[in-house]
Amino acid sequence: MAGRKKRSRGRAVRRWAAVWSRGIRRWASLGRAAGARLRPWRPEVEVDVAGKRGRSLRRAIARAARRHLGALRVTPPAHLLVVVQRTVVLEGRPLASLLQVFEAESGARRHVLLLAASTGDRKLGDGEVVAALRQQLQRVVAAELGAPVATQAEPAAVRAESAPAPPPPETPEPTPLEELASTPAPFGSLNGGFPARAER
């Protein structure tokens, strides 16, 4: 009799423990879902730059991506990975940026955006890296953004001191007739005319 009571008590304790653990897991999943809804979207960012500059560049890229897509009033992509690395090369050609889109069998898309920290021997500043990011973000959301109906481009201003001055035009040699006309010598018997050279 005592053994039966002990077994029934043990089953009740195990049942309550299972109910309690299910409730804890349920509340944890609801908390994660609520946190994901309240937390603003941000891309995954990897930067191959160490130290303080790497941390500030990572924050600048995440902030610029969030603000740019918010200003365009489009839905951010489900997954966007931005990688800043030393160089970006495609088929042996150096690039400032490269966008790769991977599509799974389910139709889900993953975007990987590679940004170069340097082109050739020149190291790019943070502002240039962020500018390349903004240009590629419009390709990421091109399907939702739609096709541009008008594009106007204006070349960058070139400083005057960097452009060499054009050479002055060469003046041709004057002919004998032009020399006489430029230095008139009055000749009385010809009514103020000019003497002509007689060649025999």
Report a brief summary of the structure.
The protein has 200 residues and is an alpha/beta fold.
List its traits:
four-stranded mixed sheet; 42% helix; 18% strand; 200 residues; 5 helices; alpha/beta; two-stranded antiparallel sheet
Present the secondary structure layout.
Elements: H1 2-38, E1 44-47, H2 51-72, E2 80-85, E3 88-90, E4 93-95, E5 97-103, E6 109-116, E7 118-119, E8 122-123, H3 126-140, H4 142-145, H5 176-182
Parallel strand pairs: 1-2, 2-6
Antiparallel strand pairs: 3-4, 5-6, 7-8
Helix pairs in contact: 2-3
- If helices are DSSP runs of H or I spanning 4 or more residues, what is the number of helices? 5
Instruction: Describe the main β-sheet briefly.
Output: 4 strands, mixed
Strand proportion: 15-25%
Number of strands: 8
- CA gyration radius, whole angstroms: 39 Å
Terminal CA distance reads 157 Å
Instruction: Write down the overall mean pLDDT.
Output: 78
* Helix share bin: 40-55%
Overall SS class: alpha/beta
**Can you tell me the overall shape?**
elongated
Order of helices and strands: HEHEEEEEEEHHH
Query: Would you identify the regions where 5 or more consecutive residues have pLDDT less than 50?
Result: 187-194
Query: Going across the major beta sheet, what is the strand order?
Result: 1-2-6-5
